[in-house]
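The freezer alarm interrupted the setup, so I double-checked each line after restarting. Inputs confirmed:
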Amino acid sequence: MIPLGDHNGGRSSPDRADDGRSTRRSSGRALAVEELTVSVQREDGRHIAVDGVSFEVVAGSAFGLVGESGSGKSLTLRALISLLPPAASVEGGGVLLHGQRLPIAGRGARRARRGEMAMIFQDSLSALNPVQGIGSQIAEAPQRLLGLSRRRAWERALELLRLVGIPDPASTAHAYPHQISGGMRQRVAIAIALSTEPSVLLCDEPTTALDVTVQAQILDLLDDLRRRLDLAIVFVSHDLAVIRQLCDETAVMYTGRLVETGPSQAVLAEPTHPYTRGLLSAIVELGDPVGAPTPIPGSLPDIERLPSGCTFHPRCFLATAECASTVPELAAAAGAADNHRSACIHRDRLVHA
Amino acid sequence: MSAASEPVQAADLLAVEEITVRFASKRGELVAVEDASLALQRGETLGIVGESGCGKSTLARCIAGLLRPDSGRILLRGADVTRARSRSERRMVQIVFQDPYSSLNPRLSVRSTLRELLAVHGLARGAAAERRCRELMGLVGLPAGALDGYPNAFSGGQRQRIAVARALAVEPEVIVADEPTSALDVSVQATILALFEDLRSQLGLGIVMISHNLAAIRHLCDRIAVMYLGRIVEFGTRSEIFGDPRHPYTLALLAASPRIREETGGTRVRLSGEPPSPANRPSGCHFHPRCPRAEERCSIELPTLGVAAGSHALVACHFRDERRTR
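Predicted 3D structure, all chains:
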């Protein structure tokens, strides 16, 4: 059996032995994204949907990417793992895994990520094969990518089921996806994702379809796994509270750009971008005084008709004429920590405001 | 009929009396709602919360007249509408669904959607109908120009407003909203919640708000029913449910809701397992296999709703008198 804590064990496949990445997993920067830009083909031409997104994720930590629908958060995630839909393509930028630059598109891109990066999705039912038993779905990748024998791979599947908190793995392994509950299916999807001992786990709203009590369990599980397996997690969600619970760092996306990044606590408690602020005040929470929340005026612009300058300016309470002409860079506000940056020329006015 | 049994005081706008809904399923009978009772007054928002499979949407459909309960009664202003509803009784209760994308006809402009309704119900024609359409747009916070649009031209929040306008077109007294904000972006949810609050206060509508989002329910609802596997397990005012929850399930739901502004770390109540299928409900108190407070008795004896000591909330738990510290 392969001890899951031993990251270099079991990598006997010749395919991966000489790929130059066997010395990876030095703790530290597991994933670096540099100026990632993705365009999407629409009827009237190509439009930029992810615009120069950069961030880093340290091994053993979780990075939250939060935004509303159409903000580009899911496309960013898909570009990282080279699973973009046909209409989208990477226009530029780089992805580094443990310091190694990965090819950005094409067959080689998929191959370079295989086993190293894994992804879980919102809808675990459609992510699983309905006509294959759970155990053999988990055993498939270890057998093919890690070169384990059928028996070893099956044992590993059982081990993974135990790891993700499935009671009675031996019998659950013979079940089919439709026979288990939504929360259990998401656990199985996590087990499959972890089956090749990836160092980076990408999560696309994995708890959105779940009930709150089950969501809490899955978040606890992910939190536990990242510590135990030294996983770098990128967690995409529209739910700030979920992000806050799991992620050390948070980036807020708006119309394909990162508008604020930093330690989750700082971003969500003392936001220095008007959009982050607006989002926070638009959300009703259990602890808040009862009363109607304050919505952000206007609505999300479509990527085909993005406003000039700062794309948030038409909805922003701080906007000035300059905002319509200048694209603001990410920078720390006066008095804020260096790693807490926002893309707003009026950011200093939001500090302690 | 109800006349004899009705108390002297004015009848409730809406009363649901001990309704039970069963569905036939492959593995036998499924009890979706059991013995659920509630009442709604004018200008009141009543919340129903619970996880998937708890029966909240089935209950909503019964109230809206889309589903007939197997037993129990539904009364509108004292009139029994359980079996059949007259056209005016049907108009009295309207429902707004979660997904505004699939609940609007994509081939009809907003104006056609609304005018068809007004004509069918004999409410307005011609210039009067046009005036009413513009008025409805105003009520839901959309410009009159939106009448010319088709559903695909609108964002999710705008579509939900159109769905609300359609519900309002027939001058209902009760609106049942089944997860009206769940499919919307966070920044838009607030605007829709505010819309429902306006409708309640301005038009004096009675609103039944179904949601799994406890925070939204807390902000909007005067009284709240918590459901688990078909049964109402706790029913109380906002301050009772959120300030002094007595059912262990209510407490667990509150604890499981992640917060942005408040530290949730430390002693988190975590329920183990997931809600069992309503086709296969555990014996006794249906919650007992997941309940941290359960004793032997809970697996045998089904607790009925009763008033908890030191509270006015109705709680279906053998230990309802215990205060649960959060």
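Quick read of the result. Chain A touches chain B at residues 68-69, 181-184, 211-217, 219-220, 238-242, 244-245, 268-269, 278-280, 282-288, 290-296, 299-300 (CB under 8 Å).
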